[in-house]
């Protein structure tokens, strides 16, 4: 079962670039141009990893994180941003972000590693849940 | 007091001269109006004149008129002496600009008294004049100060708009750079697959077209690394600009400059070891804390060390690189100097080194933002940073920062926010 990524960025070229990259790495990728679109997808569809920009019109990244923390608390979103203030960074931490990565993403490996960590975490939980089912009488 | 005596009658002249000397004055005599005029024009410190009305050439009345219409800035008290005793003559004399009027024959006692009155007037005029000069000077100084202040404000305003502008530019350039960078990286990952496919296709291709495929096979990796290189440089500039426009005043706290030096040296240790540089620490162990942000100050030091290393590297083999750190303090400030023995900065370039994008390094090696950012950081700390060429060659940077005030409320407020 391959992971489903949701990429949220108001810049189309960045969405395209990231979805191309992760598709080539065999992930299923969906995209949204702002927080609002992302929420619509999250409401209707299983998503394993969210990669989101911060500054976006119509529901920004921090607001999206807040929504996710409330409605999809198992998700650990990855924040990519060009400019981060201390306040923003602390909000990301409090709202359960996995990490934040600075644009211009000079090394995509950092982003891939973050996705891998989330993947490992999910697999670990799946294992645990299977074990739990096995233990049931 | 220097007193001019203009009198065409030699006997009277002599008499007046004697009396003046007796009363402690310094008489300057002449026998006609024209000589008197020349004397007064030349010597601005003649403060009083005893002038006979009737003289050949230029008469006393005309002399007084000339003196009054000249632009003499020092006081000059004129007593007109004459045989004319009519009231209208007196009025004519005062009208012409005489200060006093004596009728011949002159009574020495009266003359002495009148000279004393004149002296008092001259003295008070002189005081007034000096006060006026001082006042004019003060006004000029105030105007200069106001002008300087206006210039500084304008400069600060320009810097502020520059900060806003650079933050905007950095942000706008960031996004396109992200997708250039990302696409190039994805392309690099895909390249082995494309390369394999192309190579196997080339084998079954006629010689003529094969050359083109071979060219693509050798050139595309170079093109990719060219893109990568460009992105790296743009990223470095963007990062510089971001620091440039950020103000982190809220993290000010007492900082030990000596510690900053040690930590910056740890960060740059490799570079200096590689140069086999001698690092001399003349750090004052009693140095009081300064107020600021330790990381920012370390960033400034790292900038200075990297620049020094570059400057010293250019002299490799000729002189052993030597980098001296010295800290000291006075009642209000702490001071840190960093002196290298590298190539130095040409004197005519010294004022330019603080400009953003000024660099003496090879294209692509430096962004030209290091010193500009450093200056911004030090100014945020209400300090100064200056550069000069050291006496024995090389460059010396001096950073002066305000001393931390113990228990400063400012610190606590800043820390709490």
UniProtKB/TrEMBL annotation, chain A:
Read off the InterPro entries from this record.
Answer: Bact_response_regulator, CheY-like_superfamily, Sig_transdc_resp-reg_receiver
- Keyword Coiled coil assigned to the entry: answer is yes
Q: From which organism does this entry originate?
A: Sulfidibacter corallicola
Q: What keywords sit in the KW lines?
A: Coiled coil, Phosphoprotein
Protein name (Swiss-Prot/TrEMBL): Response regulator
Domain (Response regulatory): give its ranges: 4-118
In Pfam terms, one family for this protein is: Response_reg
**UniProt xrefs under Gene3D superfamilies:** 3.40.50.2300
Identify residues that carry 4-aspartylphosphate: 53
Any keyword ATP-binding? no
Q: SMART domains, alphabetically?
A: REC
- Positions the record marks as coiled coil are 108-135
One GO BP annotation is: phosphorelay signal transduction system
From TrEMBL, chain B:
Which species is this UniProt entry from?
Sulfidibacter corallicola
Q: Name one GO molecular function term.
A: phosphorelay sensor kinase activity
Which Enzyme Commission numbers does its entry carry?
2.7.13.3
* Gene3D superfamilies registered for this protein in UniProt: 1.10.287.130, 3.40.50.2300, Histidine kinase-like ATPase, C-terminal domain
Q: Which domain of life is it from?
A: Bacteria
**Root EC class:** transferase
**InterPro entries, sorted:** CheY-like_superfamily, HATPase_C_sf, HATPase_dom, His_kinase_dom, HisK_dim/P_dom, HisK_dim/P_sf, Sig_transdc_His_kin-like_C, Sig_transdc_resp-reg_receiver
Q: Which residues carry this modification: 4-aspartylphosphate?
A: 52
Question: What range(s) does the Histidine kinase domain occupy?
Answer: 168-405
What is this protein's name? histidine kinase
The Response regulatory domain covers which part of the protein? 2-119
Known catalytic reactions: ATP + protein L-histidine = ADP + protein N-phospho-L-histidine
Q: Which SMART domains match?
A: HATPase_c (SM00387), HisKA (SM00388), REC (SM00448)
